[in-house]
Amino acid sequence: MDISQLQALQPYLWTLPKTAHEERAEVLLYGSQPLLKSMDEKVLEQITNVATLPGIVGAAMAMPDAHWGYGFPIGGVAAFDAEQNGVISAGGVGFDISCGIRCLRSNLNLADAAPLLQQLADRLFETIPAGVGVEGTLQFTPQQLDQVLAYGAHWAVKQGYGDTADLEFIEENGCVAGAQPYNVSTLAKQRQQGEMGTLGSGNHYLEVQVVEHIYDQATAQAFGLHQGQLLVSIHCGSRGLGHQIGTEYLMMFVKAANQLGIHLPERELACAPIQSPAGQQYIGAMQAATNCALANRQILTHLARETFGEIYPHAVLETLFDVSHNTCKKETHEFHGQTRTLYVHRKGATRAFGPGHPQLPARYQTTGQPIIIGGSMGTGSYILAGMENNPAFASCSHGAGRAISRNQALKKWQGKELIKELKQQGILIRTRSMRGAAEEAPGAYKDVDIVATDTEKAGLARRVAFLKPKVCIKG
């Protein structure tokens, strides 16, 4: 990105000055100068387009991991007020609705578990369905899926996938209100019939990680973390159902925008007023997809526990936290001294509630919400904690963020060679797609250390622990 067009407001906060007669909200980008320079130019164009949407409150913001996406940049955050004709955008939520990360802490240390890690990797690869079009053992009719869409992780626990203790540590306690399964098309449900309890492909993964470094000992203790401990992170979303909802409502919103005279600088920014029939219909479908994703990660948690139990009979996996990063949430925020009800779009951005937030479980009331910044399969990930006075409507980075496209990655790396190199580094990769492995090469991502550091320096969240991958199951 050419940052000569930006103005530094603080060392880790930048804005794009308006030109004469330009009508839009403020544009803010978080990150250090080197990180912003590494972003593609499209990020600035897209977040500036977001700033033109009706009813936006405050600024359109790009997190430190931002990169090009459909309509909104990934790493984009924007809040809208329904009472001021604010809009909801399917492109602002993303096609993989409620994609997120479930992090599990184990009672195992790497030193004890290491002799059986290869066996664990092989069994996880057999038991965790992953890959393009790969289905799981569960099969649903559209009518049966309605129960999943209505009750989320609660449905999964009721069916025996995990237990009620998990629910306290899932956002919205595992079930978002307002889900309308009947706003989801039959085609979307058909696409999901065999995909519950599956990872999918692309950047989705199940990763066994070791806590390699602690930055904040007190918060790590509150999170139940210690150096050398094994964790499991599950990164996936609402699979085919969410993608179909995103596709269908994007088309509906394009037509609605034309009828309502909403100017769309980019087709993928298609949106509708929150209070319009189309807007309300999408919100009901989006909430249903969110429940689908929460149930999906709950089933995968159960499968991971079963597999760990086979290899390590005394293993216990507890849910540390589960939070989505492709959502639009109705939330209450203080803005310019007023309490406002806002619809906060976070596309590739994680909710990051600070200490004392009423929606956090008692365990995290003094620390703030656990946040997972997922890195690449060869570098590492971070656990952070939410901070008071987060300036971005309680949002922060969600991952390392791509540095180059998948096509560019394919020209630079080969899957087999990459997996061999990672094995030499002590990281076991199991995948059905060598092409997919090459697309997800560690070098295709930004430096996760810089992203996490900049996230902290920008006042969005503070680092608690660094995790190093040991086993990665990819689609």
From TrEMBL:
Listed name of the protein: tRNA-splicing ligase RtcB
Gene Ontology biological process terms from the UniProt entry: RNA processing; RNA repair
Pfam family of the protein (one): RtcB
Cofactor note: Binds 2 manganese ions per subunit.
Gene Ontology terms for molecular function: GTP binding; metal ion binding; RNA ligase (ATP) activity; RNA ligase (GTP) activity
Keyword Manganese: yes
Lineage: Bacteria, Pseudomonadati, Pseudomonadota, Betaproteobacteria, Nitrosomonadales
Named cofactor requirement(s): Mn(2+)
Active site: H398 (gmp-histidine intermediate)
Alphabetized SUPFAM superfamilies for the sequence: Hypothetical protein PH1602 (SSF103365)
Record InterPro entries: RtcB, RtcB-like_sf
Residues given in the record as GMP binding sites: 203-207, 325-326, 374-377, 381, 398-401, 474
